[in-house]
Amino acid sequence: MRVTQSLNQTQFLTAIDALESNISQTQNQVSSGLAFTTPAQDPIAAGAVSNYDQALAQSNQYTANGNSAQSSLQTEESTLTQVQDQLQSLRSLALEANSGTQSSADLSALAQQASQIQSTLLSLANTQNAGGGYIFGGFAAQTQPFAATAGGASYAGDQGSPQVQIAAGQTIAAGDNGDAVFNQIKTGNGSFTVTANAANTGSGLIGAATVSGDASYAGGAYTINFTAANAYQVLDAGSNVVASGTYTSGQAITFAGAQVTLSGAPAAGDSFSVAPSTNQSLFTTVQNLVNAIQTASSGNTGGSTSLNNSIAGALNDLSQAISHTSSVQSSVGDRLNTITTQQSLAVSQQTQLQKSISALQGLNYAGAITTLDTQNTTLSAALQAYTQTQGLSLFKFIS
Prior knowledge:
Helix content: 40-55%
Number of domains: 2
Structural class: alpha+beta
CATH class of the largest domain: Mainly Alpha
Radius of gyration: 40 Å
CATH architecture of the largest domain: Up-down Bundle
Strand order of the largest sheet: 6-13-8-9-10
Order of helices and strands: HHHEEEEHEEEEEEEEEEHHHH
Protein backbone atom coordinates (compact mmCIF):
# COMPACT_ATOMS: atom_id res chain seq x y z
CA MET A 1 0.00 0.00 0.00
CA ARG A 2 1.29 3.41 -0.94
CA VAL A 3 1.77 5.63 2.11
CA THR A 4 0.99 9.19 1.17
CA GLN A 5 1.43 12.36 3.10
CA SER A 6 -2.38 12.65 3.32
CA LEU A 7 -2.65 9.21 4.93
CA ASN A 8 0.08 10.06 7.41
CA GLN A 9 -1.69 13.25 8.28
CA THR A 10 -5.00 11.46 8.84
CA GLN A 11 -3.43 8.83 11.08
CA PHE A 12 -1.57 11.47 13.03
CA LEU A 13 -4.69 13.53 13.61
CA THR A 14 -6.55 10.41 14.76
CA ALA A 15 -3.80 9.72 17.27
CA ILE A 16 -3.92 13.32 18.48
CA ASP A 17 -7.70 13.06 18.96
CA ALA A 18 -7.25 9.89 21.01
CA LEU A 19 -4.62 11.61 23.19
CA GLU A 20 -6.86 14.61 23.74
CA SER A 21 -9.79 12.33 24.56
CA ASN A 22 -7.70 10.49 27.14
CA ILE A 23 -6.55 13.78 28.63
CA SER A 24 -10.15 14.98 28.85
CA GLN A 25 -11.18 11.77 30.59
CA THR A 26 -8.33 12.05 33.09
CA GLN A 27 -9.18 15.69 33.75
CA ASN A 28 -12.79 14.70 34.40
CA GLN A 29 -11.58 12.05 36.84
CA VAL A 30 -9.46 14.59 38.72
CA SER A 31 -12.27 17.16 38.86
CA SER A 32 -14.98 14.64 39.92
CA GLY A 33 -12.79 12.52 42.16
CA LEU A 34 -14.18 9.41 40.45
CA ALA A 35 -12.29 6.71 38.62
CA PHE A 36 -15.19 6.45 36.16
CA THR A 37 -18.36 8.39 35.56
CA THR A 38 -20.07 6.21 32.97
CA PRO A 39 -20.61 2.42 32.97
CA ALA A 40 -18.77 2.14 29.63
CA GLN A 41 -15.52 3.22 31.29
CA ASP A 42 -15.56 0.20 33.66
CA PRO A 43 -18.65 -2.01 33.17
CA ILE A 44 -17.89 -4.56 35.91
CA ALA A 45 -17.06 -2.01 38.61
CA ALA A 46 -19.96 0.18 37.51
CA GLY A 47 -22.38 -2.73 37.96
CA ALA A 48 -21.12 -3.38 41.48
CA VAL A 49 -21.29 0.33 42.35
CA SER A 50 -24.87 0.47 41.06
CA ASN A 51 -25.86 -2.35 43.42
CA TYR A 52 -24.11 -0.67 46.32
CA ASP A 53 -25.78 2.66 45.49
CA GLN A 54 -29.21 1.02 45.54
CA ALA A 55 -28.49 -0.62 48.90
CA LEU A 56 -27.22 2.69 50.28
CA ALA A 57 -30.27 4.60 49.04
CA GLN A 58 -32.57 2.03 50.63
CA SER A 59 -30.66 2.16 53.93
CA ASN A 60 -30.82 5.97 53.90
CA GLN A 61 -34.58 5.76 53.34
CA TYR A 62 -34.93 3.40 56.30
CA THR A 63 -32.93 5.87 58.38
CA ALA A 64 -35.22 8.71 57.30
CA ASN A 65 -38.25 6.58 58.21
CA GLY A 66 -36.69 5.84 61.59
CA ASN A 67 -36.02 9.52 62.23
CA SER A 68 -39.62 10.38 61.43
CA ALA A 69 -40.97 7.60 63.68
CA GLN A 70 -38.55 8.60 66.42
CA SER A 71 -39.82 12.18 66.35
CA SER A 72 -43.46 11.05 66.55
CA LEU A 73 -42.79 8.59 69.34
CA GLN A 74 -40.81 11.12 71.35
CA THR A 75 -43.77 13.50 71.14
CA GLU A 76 -46.09 10.71 72.28
CA GLU A 77 -43.78 9.73 75.13
CA SER A 78 -43.62 13.32 76.37
CA THR A 79 -47.40 13.65 76.13
CA LEU A 80 -47.98 10.42 78.05
CA THR A 81 -45.64 11.64 80.79
CA GLN A 82 -47.87 14.70 81.16
CA VAL A 83 -50.97 12.49 81.14
CA GLN A 84 -49.48 10.43 83.96
CA ASP A 85 -48.75 13.60 85.95
CA GLN A 86 -52.34 14.79 85.52
CA LEU A 87 -53.75 11.41 86.57
CA GLN A 88 -51.58 11.37 89.69
CA SER A 89 -52.81 14.88 90.53
CA LEU A 90 -56.37 13.71 90.01
CA ARG A 91 -55.78 10.72 92.28
CA SER A 92 -54.46 13.00 95.03
CA LEU A 93 -57.47 15.24 94.59
CA ALA A 94 -59.83 12.24 94.87
CA LEU A 95 -58.16 11.11 98.08
CA GLU A 96 -58.51 14.63 99.47
CA ALA A 97 -62.21 14.67 98.60
CA ASN A 98 -62.58 11.28 100.28
CA SER A 99 -60.96 12.37 103.55
CA GLY A 100 -64.27 13.19 105.22
CA THR A 101 -63.02 16.58 106.39
CA GLN A 102 -64.15 18.68 103.41
CA SER A 103 -66.97 21.19 103.57
CA SER A 104 -69.41 21.66 100.70
CA ALA A 105 -67.38 24.67 99.55
CA ASP A 106 -64.19 22.61 99.69
CA LEU A 107 -65.78 19.82 97.67
CA SER A 108 -67.07 22.32 95.12
CA ALA A 109 -63.53 23.70 94.70
CA LEU A 110 -62.14 20.16 94.33
CA ALA A 111 -64.77 19.41 91.68
CA GLN A 112 -63.67 22.51 89.81
CA GLN A 113 -60.03 21.41 89.97
CA ALA A 114 -61.02 17.97 88.71
CA SER A 115 -62.84 19.60 85.79
CA GLN A 116 -59.74 21.64 84.96
CA ILE A 117 -57.63 18.47 84.97
CA GLN A 118 -60.18 16.85 82.69
CA SER A 119 -59.79 19.75 80.24
CA THR A 120 -56.01 19.42 80.37
CA LEU A 121 -56.24 15.68 79.69
CA LEU A 122 -58.52 16.37 76.73
CA SER A 123 -56.00 18.87 75.36
CA LEU A 124 -53.19 16.33 75.76
CA ALA A 125 -55.26 13.69 73.95
CA ASN A 126 -55.53 16.19 71.05
CA THR A 127 -51.77 16.85 70.90
CA GLN A 128 -50.44 17.69 67.43
CA ASN A 129 -47.01 17.01 66.00
CA ALA A 130 -44.76 19.53 64.23
CA GLY A 131 -46.60 18.89 60.97
CA GLY A 132 -50.00 19.64 62.49
CA GLY A 133 -51.17 16.01 62.61
CA TYR A 134 -52.95 14.67 65.70
CA ILE A 135 -50.67 12.05 67.23
CA PHE A 136 -53.57 10.04 68.69
CA GLY A 137 -55.79 10.19 65.59
CA GLY A 138 -54.58 6.92 64.08
CA PHE A 139 -54.69 7.13 60.29
CA ALA A 140 -57.14 10.05 60.60
CA ALA A 141 -54.30 12.31 61.69
CA GLN A 142 -55.92 15.44 60.25
CA THR A 143 -59.08 15.02 62.31
CA GLN A 144 -59.21 16.14 65.94
CA PRO A 145 -59.69 12.83 67.75
CA PHE A 146 -61.43 13.88 70.97
CA ALA A 147 -64.27 16.26 71.78
CA ALA A 148 -65.84 16.90 75.18
CA THR A 149 -69.29 15.41 75.87
CA ALA A 150 -71.56 15.27 78.89
CA GLY A 151 -70.28 11.78 79.69
CA GLY A 152 -66.59 12.56 79.13
CA ALA A 153 -65.41 12.69 75.52
CA SER A 154 -66.18 11.21 72.10
CA TYR A 155 -63.54 9.78 69.76
CA ALA A 156 -63.45 10.70 66.05
CA GLY A 157 -60.17 9.04 65.08
CA ASP A 158 -59.76 5.49 63.84
CA GLN A 159 -58.28 2.31 65.29
CA GLY A 160 -55.21 2.26 63.07
CA SER A 161 -51.58 2.82 64.02
CA PRO A 162 -49.19 4.17 61.35
CA GLN A 163 -46.46 1.64 60.55
CA VAL A 164 -43.06 2.57 59.12
CA GLN A 165 -40.30 0.34 57.81
CA ILE A 166 -37.00 0.94 59.58
CA ALA A 167 -35.06 -2.00 58.10
CA ALA A 168 -35.50 -4.80 55.62
CA GLY A 169 -38.36 -6.90 56.94
CA GLN A 170 -38.78 -4.75 60.05
CA THR A 171 -41.65 -2.32 60.61
CA ILE A 172 -42.61 -0.43 63.74
CA ALA A 173 -45.69 1.46 64.93
CA ALA A 174 -44.90 5.16 64.79
CA GLY A 175 -47.78 5.99 67.11
CA ASP A 176 -50.83 4.71 69.01
CA ASN A 177 -54.40 5.62 68.25
CA GLY A 178 -56.42 7.43 70.90
CA ASP A 179 -59.01 4.69 71.19
CA ALA A 180 -56.33 2.21 72.32
CA VAL A 181 -54.66 4.73 74.64
CA PHE A 182 -57.62 6.47 76.27
CA ASN A 183 -60.72 4.34 75.70
CA GLN A 184 -59.64 0.71 76.09
CA ILE A 185 -59.04 0.89 79.85
CA LYS A 186 -60.39 -1.81 82.15
CA THR A 187 -62.61 -0.81 85.04
CA GLY A 188 -62.28 -1.90 88.65
CA ASN A 189 -59.24 -4.02 89.38
CA GLY A 190 -58.93 -5.13 85.75
CA SER A 191 -60.83 -8.37 86.37
CA PHE A 192 -64.03 -7.22 88.05
CA THR A 193 -65.72 -4.19 89.54
CA VAL A 194 -67.60 -3.74 92.80
CA THR A 195 -70.36 -1.17 93.17
CA ALA A 196 -72.68 -0.34 96.03
CA ASN A 197 -76.44 -0.35 95.50
CA ALA A 198 -77.64 3.27 95.45
CA ALA A 199 -80.48 2.28 97.79
CA ASN A 200 -78.16 1.04 100.57
CA THR A 201 -78.98 2.51 103.96
CA GLY A 202 -76.00 1.23 105.96
CA SER A 203 -72.42 2.49 106.05
CA GLY A 204 -70.78 -0.39 104.21
CA LEU A 205 -67.67 0.77 102.36
CA ILE A 206 -65.97 -0.90 99.42
CA GLY A 207 -62.33 -1.75 100.04
CA ALA A 208 -59.80 -3.89 98.24
CA ALA A 209 -61.01 -6.21 95.49
CA THR A 210 -58.63 -8.84 94.16
CA VAL A 211 -58.43 -12.23 92.51
CA SER A 212 -58.04 -14.78 95.28
CA GLY A 213 -55.04 -17.04 95.68
CA ASP A 214 -54.37 -19.45 92.85
CA ALA A 215 -57.99 -19.39 91.75
CA SER A 216 -59.00 -17.29 88.80
CA TYR A 217 -62.10 -15.17 88.53
CA ALA A 218 -64.09 -16.87 85.81
CA GLY A 219 -66.29 -13.89 85.11
CA GLY A 220 -69.99 -13.60 85.61
CA ALA A 221 -72.12 -11.27 87.68
CA TYR A 222 -72.63 -11.73 91.43
CA THR A 223 -74.48 -9.91 94.18
CA ILE A 224 -73.43 -9.73 97.82
CA ASN A 225 -76.66 -9.45 99.78
CA PHE A 226 -76.75 -8.67 103.50
CA THR A 227 -79.48 -10.76 105.07
CA ALA A 228 -78.62 -9.17 108.38
CA ALA A 229 -76.12 -6.59 109.59
CA ASN A 230 -73.62 -9.36 110.26
CA ALA A 231 -74.60 -12.00 107.67
CA TYR A 232 -74.31 -12.13 103.90
CA GLN A 233 -75.03 -14.34 100.92
CA VAL A 234 -73.35 -14.22 97.52
CA LEU A 235 -75.74 -14.92 94.63
CA ASP A 236 -74.85 -15.59 91.01
CA ALA A 237 -76.81 -14.23 88.04
CA GLY A 238 -79.30 -17.07 88.44
CA SER A 239 -79.92 -16.16 92.11
CA ASN A 240 -78.11 -19.28 93.26
CA VAL A 241 -76.21 -18.98 96.53
CA VAL A 242 -72.50 -19.51 95.84
CA ALA A 243 -71.19 -18.39 99.24
CA SER A 244 -72.44 -17.18 102.58
CA GLY A 245 -71.02 -16.32 105.96
CA THR A 246 -70.73 -14.01 108.88
CA TYR A 247 -69.68 -10.48 108.03
CA THR A 248 -66.66 -8.98 109.75
CA SER A 249 -65.63 -5.44 108.85
CA GLY A 250 -62.34 -5.48 106.94
CA GLN A 251 -62.39 -9.22 106.34
CA ALA A 252 -62.44 -10.41 102.72
CA ILE A 253 -65.49 -12.14 101.30
CA THR A 254 -64.25 -14.89 98.99
CA PHE A 255 -66.20 -16.54 96.18
CA ALA A 256 -65.70 -17.79 92.61
CA GLY A 257 -62.02 -16.82 92.59
CA ALA A 258 -62.72 -13.29 93.82
CA GLN A 259 -61.99 -11.53 97.08
CA VAL A 260 -64.01 -8.47 98.06
CA THR A 261 -63.24 -6.55 101.23
CA LEU A 262 -65.96 -4.42 102.78
CA SER A 263 -65.78 -2.30 105.89
CA GLY A 264 -68.18 -0.32 108.01
CA ALA A 265 -71.67 -1.42 108.99
CA PRO A 266 -73.92 -2.52 106.14
CA ALA A 267 -77.61 -2.70 106.98
CA ALA A 268 -79.86 -5.67 106.37
CA GLY A 269 -81.06 -5.48 102.77
CA ASP A 270 -77.95 -3.66 101.51
CA SER A 271 -76.20 -5.17 98.52
CA PHE A 272 -73.06 -4.83 96.45
CA SER A 273 -72.73 -5.87 92.81
CA VAL A 274 -69.72 -7.65 91.34
CA ALA A 275 -69.36 -7.74 87.56
CA PRO A 276 -66.61 -8.42 85.02
CA SER A 277 -64.44 -5.42 84.16
CA THR A 278 -65.29 -3.66 80.92
CA ASN A 279 -63.44 -1.11 78.82
CA GLN A 280 -64.09 2.47 79.84
CA SER A 281 -62.83 5.78 78.53
CA LEU A 282 -60.42 7.68 80.73
CA PHE A 283 -62.65 10.71 80.25
CA THR A 284 -65.69 8.80 81.54
CA THR A 285 -63.69 7.85 84.63
CA VAL A 286 -62.77 11.48 85.24
CA GLN A 287 -66.34 12.64 84.60
CA ASN A 288 -67.65 10.07 87.08
CA LEU A 289 -65.29 11.46 89.71
CA VAL A 290 -66.30 15.05 88.95
CA ASN A 291 -69.98 14.08 89.18
CA ALA A 292 -69.47 12.30 92.51
CA ILE A 293 -67.71 15.28 94.08
CA GLN A 294 -70.20 17.77 92.63
CA THR A 295 -73.11 15.71 93.97
CA ALA A 296 -71.53 15.59 97.41
CA SER A 297 -70.82 19.32 97.38
CA SER A 298 -74.45 20.11 96.62
CA GLY A 299 -75.70 17.91 99.43
CA ASN A 300 -77.65 15.68 97.03
CA THR A 301 -76.13 12.45 98.33
CA GLY A 302 -76.87 9.65 100.73
CA GLY A 303 -74.07 10.92 102.95
CA SER A 304 -70.37 10.32 103.20
CA THR A 305 -70.80 6.57 102.59
CA SER A 306 -72.16 7.18 99.11
CA LEU A 307 -69.38 9.64 98.33
CA ASN A 308 -66.74 7.28 99.72
CA ASN A 309 -67.99 4.38 97.60
CA SER A 310 -68.25 6.52 94.46
CA ILE A 311 -64.72 7.83 94.94
CA ALA A 312 -63.45 4.33 95.77
CA GLY A 313 -64.76 3.16 92.40
CA ALA A 314 -63.24 6.17 90.67
CA LEU A 315 -59.89 5.55 92.38
CA ASN A 316 -59.86 1.94 91.17
CA ASP A 317 -60.61 3.12 87.66
CA LEU A 318 -57.92 5.80 87.92
CA SER A 319 -55.40 3.18 89.01
CA GLN A 320 -56.27 1.18 85.92
CA ALA A 321 -55.88 4.30 83.76
CA ILE A 322 -52.48 5.06 85.29
CA SER A 323 -51.36 1.47 84.77
CA HIS A 324 -52.70 1.37 81.21
CA THR A 325 -51.12 4.62 80.04
CA SER A 326 -47.89 3.61 81.77
CA SER A 327 -47.93 0.36 79.79
CA VAL A 328 -48.44 2.29 76.55
CA GLN A 329 -45.58 4.60 77.50
CA SER A 330 -43.32 1.60 78.14
CA SER A 331 -44.21 0.27 74.70
CA VAL A 332 -43.27 3.63 73.20
CA GLY A 333 -39.95 3.49 75.03
CA ASP A 334 -39.28 -0.02 73.71
CA ARG A 335 -39.95 1.16 70.17
CA LEU A 336 -37.64 4.14 70.60
CA ASN A 337 -34.90 1.78 71.81
CA THR A 338 -35.50 -0.45 68.78
CA ILE A 339 -35.14 2.53 66.46
CA THR A 340 -31.96 3.68 68.19
CA THR A 341 -30.45 0.21 67.86
CA GLN A 342 -31.44 -0.07 64.21
CA GLN A 343 -30.14 3.41 63.43
CA SER A 344 -26.77 2.44 64.88
CA LEU A 345 -26.69 -0.67 62.71
CA ALA A 346 -27.71 1.40 59.68
CA VAL A 347 -24.83 3.85 60.22
CA SER A 348 -22.37 0.95 60.24
CA GLN A 349 -23.94 -0.52 57.12
CA GLN A 350 -23.93 2.81 55.30
CA THR A 351 -20.29 3.42 56.23
CA GLN A 352 -19.32 0.01 54.85
CA LEU A 353 -21.29 0.57 51.65
CA GLN A 354 -19.64 3.95 51.13
CA LYS A 355 -16.23 2.37 51.65
CA SER A 356 -17.04 -0.32 49.08
CA ILE A 357 -18.19 2.29 46.56
CA SER A 358 -15.10 4.40 47.20
CA ALA A 359 -12.83 1.39 46.75
CA LEU A 360 -14.37 0.73 43.34
CA GLN A 361 -15.00 4.23 42.08
CA GLY A 362 -12.76 6.43 44.20
CA LEU A 363 -9.87 8.05 42.34
CA ASN A 364 -6.18 7.59 43.10
CA TYR A 365 -5.31 11.26 42.78
CA ALA A 366 -1.54 10.78 42.76
CA GLY A 367 -1.79 8.19 39.99
CA ALA A 368 -4.29 10.25 38.04
CA ILE A 369 -2.12 13.39 38.17
CA THR A 370 0.93 11.40 37.08
CA THR A 371 -1.11 9.97 34.20
CA LEU A 372 -2.33 13.44 33.25
CA ASP A 373 1.23 14.81 33.24
CA THR A 374 2.36 11.92 31.06
CA GLN A 375 -0.55 12.41 28.67
CA ASN A 376 0.13 16.14 28.37
CA THR A 377 3.82 15.49 27.75
CA THR A 378 2.99 12.90 25.08
CA LEU A 379 0.54 15.26 23.42
CA SER A 380 3.05 18.13 23.43
CA ALA A 381 5.75 15.93 21.93
CA ALA A 382 3.37 14.61 19.31
CA LEU A 383 2.34 18.11 18.27
CA GLN A 384 5.95 19.21 17.97
CA ALA A 385 6.77 16.16 15.89
CA TYR A 386 3.78 16.79 13.71
CA THR A 387 4.80 20.41 13.15
CA GLN A 388 8.31 19.42 12.18
CA THR A 389 7.06 16.68 9.88
CA GLN A 390 4.73 19.13 8.17
CA GLY A 391 7.76 21.35 7.36
CA LEU A 392 9.57 18.66 5.36
CA SER A 393 9.30 18.60 1.49
CA LEU A 394 11.29 17.42 -1.55
CA PHE A 395 12.15 21.02 -2.48
CA LYS A 396 14.01 21.48 0.82
CA PHE A 397 16.17 18.45 0.06
CA ILE A 398 16.87 19.70 -3.53
CA SER A 399 17.85 23.10 -2.26
